[in-house]
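Usage example:
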Amino acid sequence: MSKYDDLKFPFCEDESKFEKLAKIGQGTFGEVFKARDRKTKRLVAMKKVLMENEKEGFPITALREIKILQLLKNENVVNLLEICRTKVTPYNRFKSTFYLVFEFCEHDLAGLLSNVNVKFTLGEIKKVMQQLLNGLYFIHSNKILHRDMKAANILITKNGVLKLADFGLARAFSVSSKGLRYTNRVVTLWYRPPELLLGERNYGPAIDQWGAGCIMAEMWTRSPIMQGNTEQHQLQLISQLCGSITPEVWPGVEKLELYDKLELPKGQKRKVKERLKHYMKDQYALDLLDRLLCLDPVKRIDTDSALNHDFFWNDPMPCDLTPMLSRHGTSMFEYLAPPRRRVAAHPHQPPPKQQANPDQHFERIF
Amino acid sequence: MGDSEGRVHFRVVRFMHEAALRLHMKSVPLATACFIYHKFFREYAVKDFDPYLIGSTSIYLAGKVEEEHLKMRDVINVCYKTLHRRKAPLEIGDTYTALQESMASCELLILRCLKFQVVFVHPHKYLLHYLKSLQSWFHRREWEETPIASTAWALLRDSYHSSMCLHSNPEHVAVAVIYLALQCYGVEVPYSKYADTPWWKAFCEDVTLDAIKAIIKDILTTYDVEITFSTS
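Running the assembly step on the lines above writes:
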C-alpha cells in the first residue's frame, strides 16, 4: 500500500486538510461536522455523503444537491465550497467517503428558537423572514424547489445573514409541463403542505411557501405550530387551524388522489389569525401568515408578492441581527439543543418523540 | 493499431451515440455524456483507460446529471451488446458483476476528474430558439422545402465526435451550425442584403464571422476523420 500513500489526486482533495472539531448535525442525510481548514484556518461544515446504494453508484440525491448548489449562488443560499474525500484503506474496503464542504454558519433557526435567552424583536423577525423569502424567491426563479423547509434547515451566520441549507431533497421543476409526477414523500411532516398530504404529485413552489408560513409562525410561538404524528393527524391539525379542506375553499381538491381516502374534519372554521394573535400582535404579520398558510396552493402567496407585503414596509422596518446575535457567543444548533417544548396552543397532544417519530423522516426516492 | 487519439475518440463517441439511441436517450443527456467523455480524456491519456468503459460510464452519469435516469443494468447490457455485436447478450454472472463494479468506481473517478462540476451548458437550447426565430423570417414554403432545422440539429449532434464542445462558446456553436446548414442548401436568410445587422448578430451579439468559420472548420474536420474510416 505504501507506494500509493504518496499519490496526489489533483482534482479532489483529501479530507485530512480539514480538522474535524465537532459533530453538529445528524439526520436522515447523514452526519454533519464542524471543521477547520488546517492551512487557511477557515471554518467549514462537512456533510458526509451516504453511500447507501452502492450498486447504482454515486447517490443521485447527492449529485442533485451538488448540481443545484453549483447553479444557485446567492447571499441567502448556503455556499458549497468543494467536495473532498477520505483516503482509501483496507478498513474502508478501498472505498472513499465523500464530503460536501460548506461555508460555516454559526446557528440554525431551530437552535436559536429553542434557546429562551435568544429574543427576537419584531424588526429582527422581519429581517429573518425577508431573507428567507428572498432566498426562496431566488431558488424558485431558478426553477428549483427546496422540498424540505424547516427551521433546522435555515442557517444564520453570526453576521445575521440567513442561508437556506440542505438541498438534499431539492429538485428542478418545470412550469409548463402538465402531468409531471414528482414524489410526494417530501418535506418533514410538520411542515408538509396539505396538497402533498393529499397525494398531489404535480406540485410547485407553493409547497415551500407553506413551510415558510410554518416557520414564520414559529418565530413567535418558538416551536413548530403543527406537530402531527401521522399524515392523517397532520391534516387534522391543518384543518383545525386553517379551516376544513373543501372544494369551496380549494377548487379541484376533490380530484387529489387521497381526498376520499383520508378523513378530513368537516365544519372547521379558519382560525389562523384568531389562534396566533396572542403570539403575534402585529396585524401585518398576521395577514402575511394567513396568506402563506392558504390551503389552496394556487391562491397561496408567492415569494415576490410576499416580499412586497406591507409587513416588510411598515415600522419597525427589518433590522440587522448582528447586535442581538453577538450577545450569544456559542453556536446554536438544533442538534445540540435540548428538545423543544410544545406550545401551549396544543395542550391535548402527546409530547414529541425525539428522533423516534418515523413520520418525521422521509424517503429519498427520485 | 497506430490509431491517433482523435480516431479512437471518434470511434468511441460513435459507439456512445449508438448505445444512446438504443437507450432512448434524449439529445441533451447524450451531449452531456460526450462532454464528460472528452473532458476526461483531456486530463488522461487514452492508453491508461479503457475508452469504452469511460464512454459507457459517461452515459450512465449523464443520465443522473440531466435527470433522465437510466438503470445501470440497462446501460451495461446495451453497451455490451453494442460493443460485442456477435456475442450473446450478457447474462447475470461474474462478467456482469465485474462490469457493474468497474462502472461504479469509474463513475467516482470521472466525478473527481470533473471536480464535481456537473453543470453543463450546451448549444441545444440556443439552437432551438434561433431556429424558431429563423422559421418566422422565412417564407413558409421555403422553410418546409429545405431541411435546415434537421440539418443544423444533425451537425450539432455530430460535432460532439470531437472535443470541440470543451472549448467553444455554446451560443456561437448554435449560430455556426445554422450558418453551415444554410450553406449546405445554398439558402440565404431573407432580406439579408438589406439588413444593417447580419442575422447571426441578431441572435448573438458577440459572435464574429471569424468565430463562426473557425467552428465550421472544426466540425468539418470531424467529417474528414469519418472518411478515413470508410476508406481505410
